[in-house]
Design a protein that fits this description.
Layout lengths: L3 E7 L3 H12 L5 E8 L3 H14 L3 E6 L5 H11 L4 E5 L3 E3 L3 H10 L4 E8 L7 H8 L14 H12 L3 E3 L11 E5 H7 L12 H11 L3 E12 L3 H6 L2 H19 L1
Parallel strand pairs: 1-2, 1-4, 2-3, 6-9
Antiparallel strand pairs: 4-8, 5-9, 6-8, 7-9
Helix pairs in contact: 1-2
């Protein structure tokens, strides 16, 4: 039985998804990919299935006839998952050598650790408190973006930080669920994502808060890196104005729930 179930909602986008699969398959044999097909076209499904066979990635496909959104799709994967660790991973991502192993060590070595996340190419996502630390090692340019190719960035972060972690401030901050490793005990205690967040805004903020209140600590693995083409599916489905409206609605739900 694999140690890590990887849950990825997919709506079309075969090129990005296949690239995600290729990088994921290179991470080792302890992974089982739970692909939640959120109403993708048949041709896209066929291409993705061929890629999983080509790269030898153990896969289970969960099929929806239509797109039900990120939260419902992720919960469908969580219901099928049995592994001791669950990696929530968007299809518009790439993980690099050592990324998942470092995230797992965060949870293995700290009994209080519930969720671990990597540094990302989308730098605002939950790690502004790390930017000053990363700047010390001259990994960013003057505009605040990483220098070099993604492979070089992953190697530099791994070399500079290794297994160094930073706990999130318990009063603020969250781990964005484009790439987040969750311990099974968290799911057993907290449950699944709150489907009031609909297509997928605010659900990760909500889950991080619930995990904190259940007694778990959230950590950044500073030597782990994940490339992310932010909001690819959302921008295919919605205008920027619609995205802002949905995000504002989610923040209302979040505020009403947690204060």
């Amino acid at each position: 039985m694999p140690d890590i179930d990887v849950i990825t909602p997919v709506y079309g986008q075969p090129d990005l998804t296949i690239d995600c699969v290729r990088h994921l398959a290179a991470e080792g044999s302890d992974l089982h990919w739970l692909w939640v097909d959120n109403g993708s076209p048949d041709d896209d499904v066929h291409r993705i299935e061929l890629a999983t066979q080509k790269y030898g990635l153990p896969t289970t496909r969960i099929r929806f006839a239509e797109n039900l959104g990120f939260v419902v799709a992720t919960n469908a994967g969580l219901r099928e998952s049995t592994a001791p660790y669950v990696l929530l991973l968007n299809n518009d991502t790439r993980v690099f050598p050592g990324t998942i192993a470092r995230l797992r060590r965060v949870l293995d070595e700290r009994p209080n650790a519930g969720i671990a996340g990597p540094v990302s190419s989308s730098g605002w996502q939950g790690w502004p408190n790390l930017v000053s630390k990363i700047r010390e090692f001259a990994l960013l340019n003057r505009e605040g973006a990483f220098k070099g190719s993604d492979e070089e960035i992953a190697e530099r972060l791994g070399s500079r930080f290794g297994d160094h972690v930073r706990p999130l401030d318990p009063t603020k901050g969250m781990l964005a669920f484009f790439c987040a490793l969750i311990r099974r005990e968290v799911i057993e205690k907290v449950g699944f994502l709150d489907e009031r967040y609909g297509v997928g805004f605010g659900d990760d903020d909500d889950y991080c808060e619930a995990a904190r209140r259940a007694g778990f600590t959230l950590y950044f693995a500073m030597g782990a890196y994940c490339w992310h083409k932010h909001r690819t599916t959302f921008r295919e489905l919605y205008s920027e104005q619609e995205i802002q409206v949905r995000q504002s609605e989610a923040m209302v739900v979040l505020g009403e729930k947690w204060g």
